[in-house]
Structures are given as structure tokens and as C-alpha cells.
Amino acid sequence: MTEETSRKTRPETLTVGIAGSRLTTTQREVPANDPPPLPPNSDLHVVGKRVPRIDGARIVTGAARYTADIRLPGMLYARMITSPHPHARIASIDTAAAAACPGVRAVHVLDRYEKDPIVRYAGQPVAAVAAVSQAAADEAARLVRIAWEPLPFVVDVESARAADAPLVYPPNPDDKVPRKGNVRGPVKRGPRGKPAGDALDALANSPVVVDHTYRTQVQTHATLETHGVVADWQPGSAIVYASTQATVAFRDELAEVFGIPKARIRIITEYMGGGFGSKLGMGPYGVLALHLSKKAGRPVRLMLDRREEQRCTGNRPSSVQHLRLGATRDGKLTAIHLSSYGTGGVGGGAGSAGPAQNMYDCPNVETEEADVFTHAGPSAAMRAPGHPQGCFALEQSIDAVAEKLGIDPLRLRDLNDSNAARREERRIGAEMIGWSARHKPGADKGTIRRGIGAAQSIWYRFVRLDSACEVRLDREGSVEIVSAVQDIGTGIRTVLAQVVAEELGIDPRGVIVRIGDTSFPAGPSSGGSLTTGSITPPARNAAHGVRTQLLEVAAPLLKADPAHLDLREGRVVVKSDPSRSISLREAAAKIGPDQIAVRARRSEDYGTPPLPPGQTSGMGLEIYGGVQFAQVAVDTGTGAIKVERVVAVHDCARPMNPLTIESQIKGGIIQGISYALFEDRTLDANAGLMVNPNLEMYKIAGSRETPVIDVHLLEEYIGRTSTDAGGIGEPATIPTAAAVANAVHNALGVRMLELPMTPDRVLSALRTVRS
Amino acid sequence: MSDSTKGVSRRGFLKGAGSAAAATALLDSAVLTVREATAQITGPPVYGPGRTELALHVNGSERTVLVEPRTTLAAALRDELDLTGTKVVCDRGACSGCTVWIDGLPVASCMTLAIDAAGRKITTIEGLATGDKLHPVQEAFIEKDAMQCGFCTPGMVMTAAALLERNPDPTLDDVKEAVSGNLCRCAVYPQVFEATLAAAKKRKASQIAGS
Ligand code: FES
Ligand code: FES
Q: What is the pTM for the complete model shown?
């Protein structure tokens, strides 16, 4: 086995640019062991093609096993005990009655309440019981007696900011970011870090200023498979089946909590039913289940129910964004100033300034972001944290600047956005949606008014170097790739098969892909749209290593130099004389002792300053763009908005599999529409409880709300890795709500400053123009 | 889908009520099971409160389960018979993730008691294909990529395939209507529409070719 970690480099000529518009080459140093650059997709056989998921048959027949489907011999079922109060002190916990219940095998109370016996939101997990059936566990959970001392609470963001509001957390002088009452921050930032120029001064001197305050709601992830695990403690070690989007991080967290070596914990995630950022951490469920298993000496399944899922597993924080843009009369942005706060309940991360900081070329940019703590369920990363909310504000204000100046909104973006991909995307999308026929804002008459609007996206090229895999070829000719990386539904399993198949000249369906298991080489977390960009380069490098060794084995059989051989359609072929060939199987049979196995780890991005030693993740030089156009029909009688059509033009570096990429883009758009029009985590301010912790009152978009969606995928080469792949999950959902809002403005001539854009809000916005 | 589901669940409800009116209403329903016919003569059977042995007719074979009367069909299939293709997402009839067929009609198995399904013909996602030959809807779902995480997929496939059983030539709107109760958080709806229409077309073509 070899590990490709050499720091030596060689110069290489790499293709860069956008296929179909401008393709050029550039010279960069690449790691000496990296394979030669892949040609553009048009010259490839498998990569870049619409390859159906290799595990599709397992999924459509119900054979795919998710965590909720795991059944181990002797397995117990668990149920959590959660807080019924939004804020309370636990005076005592009596588990005797629960423990004595028939069928109950273990009860566990989270240790943290010994130090801090306070619950801070309704639905907060406190304990769990394990029993021989789910029904028995449910019953026993009701018998855990907790003496609560209810405390004053606040769930509304505005009330929580008041000086005399009940505190979510006691004051802490060690806080990195200073906190006053429930308000942490604000933190001042700007493009990639510090503020640029002097935004306030520039605003004061700008001939054109747009000044709006936008509000966005709390959204829950609402993954269809709830959070949960099947934990199997074995003395000194553990196997845990987890519905997670980060097998390695899950393992590391468990190892720390239980004080056992990481290598003694194995996390398995063969299939998982959605994450969207909420399944990056272990959560209290993992800890509870493993404790229960340890106590009972049996495996324990702890899957959350829907109500728990909606209340305690994460959410996208709300935002209140005061955004001011300044511009010159000829449409050059002079200033961007954003002051925002929001609440992620007991969690932070309510910032929304990414787009304001990074989307446009502007000399003066300053953002201030604050977190407001409330007695509500914790935030978690959710598909492009901060960005859909930030775009909802920024992209509407950009349109408002254009309107004030009488400039076409796309033209205004051309003037202020030098990103080449987005420029091209605006052009292509405008043509597809019929932008030139767009009427003036509010020009449509009648009861149903139509409009079109555009908005654009920004996301970052995150890279994780702790991404590795191993490719194996055995003497029977079986090809296998293994990695701990998990498939959260993007289809990475298929993309890995494509990469290996391309390198070895075989059918991707013939590649065995085993992933989602920490006993394999480390894989990246699937968060930040980094999976494909991080794990495909080592997959290709490892496959290339196998190829090289195989050609050496085959060379004497074909009486040719390895350099003159190629792998095509399952055969080793002499390039100059394809009639001389042997099958890959025949060649593989001559492999030494058992198999060829090559392991590779992610190299640094080519031509990019290396990460500081010891740091395994960072940001690449490029960004991902994306421009979306929405066409809406607004019923001015009922206030209902119908999104009729969305045109989406996106880039993700080299598209590896347009079929699955388009699925991600369409999914991102529909989630964006759902966020724009329906979803709203609602808390009763008097009781402090979530009133819609389910799927009938927490409305997510369904088939009836699905518009016609046309996707155009840019093929953009950036020359940064051996596959040059990038990500798409997050960019796809960032601009949708903003595009819909701009389309509504085009239809009605009024700006929707608050999400979701419900019928009542549309009607009241209409009243403001009529009066 | 709503009409057909109502058919089945209403029967369950009326049977529970156990009144003469219910028996009359039952006569209007298409088929009476042996148990229902018996119930009309002797009154409703009494189950529980402990575990009861039930014969479930699943995917063409008779399976016996030992469950409490409160056990849902979804739980019986998943936990007793290890047929975990059927997913439980909301467990209260809001998402159709648990859709199976009873006597050919799609129902939410989380809203159906196992005892009410006893003696009826149950088809789950595991039983939709014929041996290794996938159902045309399954094939089309793969081809059009009507899945991401795949957790809604079994329910979605069962609903879409049921639509083709009752309407072999659906319009786009028929498909939207049929799956309007099936939630998909990854939002693969457009591909579901495409796949279902493609499957219908393919099935029609092969029927014409075969006749
Ligand atoms: S799980 Fe049955 S409808 Fe949702
Ligand atoms: S594919 Fe993930 S919920 Fe439908």
C-alpha cells in the first residue's frame, strides 16, 4: 500500500475557463504524484455524464437500510424525556417508576444537569429510557418524574433584546464575543474579514441611497428521516449506526465523551434520510443511546419522533437586517452597510452578512451581526447558513437601487460584479426566461399579476484535506473504492464510481463503492458543499495509482511498454494497435499476492497558498456563483403567490454528474420557494412552546407548489485539483427567495420585506400602495 | 389518492363502531373479508389488550405476527416482519412516506391498524417488483433521478405506481394530484412527475407491442 503524500511538485498545463464561451490554459505547480489533468468533459467517457445512481435499485425497492431500519439481535428501543417548559430548573429527577416498568432495561439522565440543572427550551432532551419495545419505552418515559421549577422565559426576538428580559444564559466574563443581556455582539466584519473603507461615511456622501429593513423567519430542517442512532456498546469499544452527515466527526465526539480511543468506535451510515446541516454533530441522542447501551449491555435504537425532530434538532435562525446601499448616479456601488440580528434560540449563528460582504465589488463594506438568545430550540447549520436570508435583503436592495436609477437590474449587477461565471449566468438566464419582455414594476393589471425577477448567489470553495479513500483491484478483477465519506443524498456514491471507472476504463456500475463507515480512510463531513470537491481528487489519485500498477502487470503480457498501454471498455489495450489487448480480468489475474490497493489523501488546491501546518480545512481561491430567475403569478384578491417557473443557471467547477447535480439544484430551488412562501417555525409567546412541531402545520412545499424548473449548468474549469470538481448543494438554495421577492415586486410594484411572503403579508403590502 | 384511502379507512372506522348502520354501510363496500362477514353475524371480534396473533397477507405470502391491537400496520411491517422499505416519517398521516397498498389501493400504513389489514392483500415496496424485474415506475425513478436521500422514495413509488394502476394514461396534473400528499424534503418532485409520466408511456408502449 502506498500513500501519496509527496510535497514535490511538477509544472502542469491546466484548462481554465467556461466551456462554450472561453477556454484557455494556465501553468501551475501540481503535486508530483497527482495524475495528469483530466481533459474537459467532452473528452471523457464517464465523468461529466448523466449516470443514474448506481444504488438506485436499492433505493426504489426499499432495500437501502437507513439507521431507522437497523435491527440488531437483542436490540432495545429508546425514548427521550424532554422538557415541557421553555425555561426551568430541575429540582429533582426520580427514575424509579420508569426503571421498574415492565420491559425497561436502562434509564439514563444526561450528566450535564448535575452541573447546570437548567433547561432552556421546551423540548430539550434530559434523559432517556430503553426497553424491549418502542411502546414500552414510550410508556416508561412518561413515568420519569421530574420536579420542575419554572423560570421566566422569552421566546420573541424583540422582547429578548430588552434590558430587563429574562436571561437565557447567565453572564460569562470568558465569552469571546462580548454579550449584553441576551445579545451577543455585534461583530463588525467586511469582505473576507475586516471592514473595507468607511461605509458610513460613503453612505453619507452617496447620491443614491437605498435603506430597508428586512425580516426573515426561523426555518426547521425537517429532514424526513429523524435524527437517531443504533448504538451498540461493547466493553471498551462501540459500533454506532448513525443518521449523520459526518461519520468521522460523530466518532470523534463520541470518543471524547466516553474517553475511549477513536479507533475503538465505528460509525456506520450506509444511507441517511436527509441532513441539510442539522446532522453535522452528535447531539444528545448519540450520547444518550450509547449510555443506555452501556448500561443495558444490549444495542439500543434511539430514533427521534417527528415532534422531537421539529423542536430540538436545529433550525435556520431568524434575521432582522437593516441594510443600506449607496451608489453613484451611473450605478456604481459606493457603500454597503448591514446591521443585523437574529435568533437561533439557545444557539448562535444568526449572522446573515455573507452576501453583503462578498457578492459585489464595492470599496466600502461594513457589516455588524448580533445573535439574540431566546428560550427556543437551538440553531444548526442549515444549507448555506446566513446566505438565503442575506440574499433576500441584498438582492432586493440591489434591485431597488436599479429602480431608483432607472437602470435594468441585470445591467446594474454587470456594473458591480466582476465574477465571470455569474456574468455569463445572467446572460444565459435572461435569455431563457425572456428577460427582455419583462414589464415595468407594477405594470401588470388585473386580479392575477405576473412578474419576473432575478437574484444571484455566492458560496465558497471549502476544502477538506482530511479526505481520503482507497481503491482496490483484486485478482478476480473486482474494483472497489472505500472511504468513510457518507452520501447524504447528493449521489456521491455514484460520482466516486464514475471517477474510478473513468480512470480504469470500466463501467461505473461495475465499481463497488463502500462508504459511510469510519473503519475506512477518513472522509470529509458533508457540509459546506465540499464533499465532491474534497473526496473526488483522492479517489482519482488512488485509482490512477491502481491503473499505473495494473499497466505494469499487463505490459509483459502484451509485450509493450506500460506507457504505451491504455485502459478502455474493460480491456488493456496497446494504444498504437488496439487489436492487441487483453481483458482487465486477465491482467488482474496476474497481480502479485492478492490485490492492488492504493490509498490517497486530498492534495492542496493547485496554485493556492498551502494551509497552515496542522490545519486540515480551508477555503479555496474561487467562489461559486449562480443566478436564478423566477416568474410568479400573484392573486391580488387572495394574496397568494404562485411561483410558475424558475430558471437556474449555476456553476460548480467541473460538473461530475449533471443528472444528480440538477436534482440538487431543483431541490435547492423548491426548498427556497418553501422558505420564501410557507415555512415558519411558530412559537407561542405566552407558553413558550412550538405550535407546529409536525408536518401538517409546519408547511413544506409539495408537488402542488412545484414550478417548472429549467436548469442550465455551466461547465467551469478552474484547474485546482485532479478532478477539478466543486459543490452545488448550497448555492442552489441561496438566491431563490430573493428571486421570488424581486418577481413579486415586478408583478405588484411593492417590496416584500418579510419572509415568508404569506397571503396576508401580500395583501397588507398591496394596501400600502393603494392608499 | 384521497378518495381511495378514505374507502379503506372508513371501513375500519365503521367496523370499530360496530353498529347495525355500519354493517349496512359495509355491504356497500366492494368486498367483505371473512372477518367482516363474521363480524356482521357475531358482532365485532375482540382483540387484546395483550398481543394477538394476526395473519398478514404481504407481498403474496402469508405472514404471522404477534402484535398488540394498537400496533399500526407500518410498525408491524417494519418491526415484526423486517420489511423496512416502508418508512415512518410523521406517524400521523401527514406525509405519505409510509404508503403501502391494501387490496391495490394506496393507504398510509401509519394510520392503519395491523388488525384492520389482516386478511387483506398488502403490497409493500419490497413486493412491487416481479422478481428481479423492476416495476416500470421503479425503473423510471432511477432513470430520471427521482430521488436524493431516498427516504420518501418508497412511499412516492407506491403512490405513483398506484396511480398508473387506476389511470394508465395520466396527465401531468393527475400526477401532481396523486403525489400531492407525499412530502419530499429533498424536493425531487419534478423528477417524480417526469418519471411517472415516462413509466406510463413505456407501459403503454409495451402493452401495445405485446398485444
Ligand atoms: S408516516 Fe404515515 S403519513 Fe407520514
Ligand atoms: S429524496 Fe430525500 S426526502 Fe425525498
A: 0.94
